[in-house]
Sequence to fold (141 residues):
Amino acid sequence: MIRCSQGVDLVEVPAFREVVLRHDRFLDDVFTAGERAYCLSRSDPFPHLAGRFAAKEACLKAVGIGLSGVGIDHSLQEVEVVNAPSGRPQLVAQGWVSAMARRQGVRQWSVSIAHTPGWALATVILIGDLPDTPGGSRRRR
Fold:
C-alpha cells in the first residue's frame, strides 16, 4: 500500500533576516556549507535562505518530527536542499532524519520552494510503502 506524507512551511523573509543578523552562528548551525555557498552567492541571499529553511522544516513535518522532540539538535543540518542539474531543488537527508524516513518506507522525496522578497514557502511530499507490521501484514493509516 502506498503512503504519502506532506509538510508545508511559510517564512516571513524580513523577520528571518533579523534572526540571521542577530545570531552569529545561525547560518552555520542551520545550513550546510553547500546551502550557504549557493544562497550567499545571490544578490539578496535572504529569500533563498528562508526558502531553504522552509523546505527543511516542511521536510521534518512530513517525516513526522517537526522542530521539536528527540533528535532535533542536528536535524536541520541533516536535511539539505541541493539543486539538480536542471536547477530544480532536491532534498538529501542524512542521519536521524534519513533513518526515520527509511523506517516509514519513504522511497521518493519531492520539494517545491517559492519566494518573494517578503515570503518564502516550501512544500515537501514523501511517498513510500507502508512498513510491515509484526505478523507480516501491512497496517492502514
Notes: Residues 2-129 form a domain with the Ribosomal Protein L22; Chain A fold (CATH 3.90.470.20). The beta strands are 2-12, 79-83, 89-93, 106-115, 119-129. The longest strand covers residues 2-12. The mean pLDDT is 88.
